[in-house]
User: Fold this.
Amino acid sequence: MVLLSSRLRWALACTIALSAGCIGQTAEQTEADSLGPDTSGHPSGPLHRAGFPCTRCHGEAWWQQSPVFELAGTIYRKADDARGLNNAEVIVRDATGREVIARTNQSGNFYFEKGDANLEFPLRVSVRSGDQEQTMRGLIWRERSCAACHSGDPGEASNGRVFVEASP
Amino acid sequence: MMLRGKSKLVWRALAALCLSASACQAPSEPTQRITAGDPELYASYVQPYLEVGCATLDCHGDLGHPLRLFSELGLRSEAALRPDAISEQREPRALTEGELEDNQLSIASIALASRAPAEHLALLKPLAVAAGGIAHEGPTLWPSTKAPGYQCLRAYLLGDEAGDAPQACAQALDALQAATPAAAEPAAE
Assistant:
């Protein structure tokens, strides 16, 4: 009896040790961890993590109690700006033909919280600030974070930041 | 004695190897050949449709998704092909011959059976399940096999006799451009 219980204890210890790497580490958490630290200097809230793919943490699958976004991102004045653009308009037209507009905050962030717009994909997006305006040439079919496809500088898998003023 | 024991062991190992290798022999079915369609037809008519409907960075332009497709606005084969941000004022660089060929091969590789060319994932995935399609992680693009997009891909994959690919692809592209119809006025701010 003592022997059996000792084996059982060993088996339990091994199981726990082997699964320790999996406990508390959901796919969403792993993905969020991969974003690295927030260097914005802002506490969690509408101004934080400009330029990051918002719905990695503010998506349906996220494990924390944070607002869920239908669509969110960061807008810049120029493609190579490091800081987001305040008070830009993000005009989104969805598959039903409905048009909704969000305005960026001082970090350049905008978002539609779940239930705000009930967007139906595909989406077509324009951004506007003053007399400057850019309309995305392609459609958005499923992605809810701008930065998933518009991250950093242009490259093979990124179209660069979302901006309103084209460089000459 | 020791040597004989070793030799026995070697023979047994060889026999086991032969037995296990027999399971790996080629099936009796002849190798199926898949062919990519006409490259000019693809470049001129099919790719522009796929560019808008399938190859975006959030769908098949994402390396994490099955069926990788390059496109002017989506995934490029190398960063040098997108040196600057694309804007209303700056055109993207045209796809290279290599990218176009890779796309054709990507599509060819998801054929299910060469003897039944319509049994092709490129035709079945975007098609509504109710119309004979199969589940697709992305959107249902074609409600029925009459959809121009289906006809476009079918004509490309099956050849001229299957339909007028240029006309079907042009209609399909028009339909996509109208996927977000203009609204009467902004609904909310």
About this structure: Residues 39-79+91-179 of chain B form one domain.
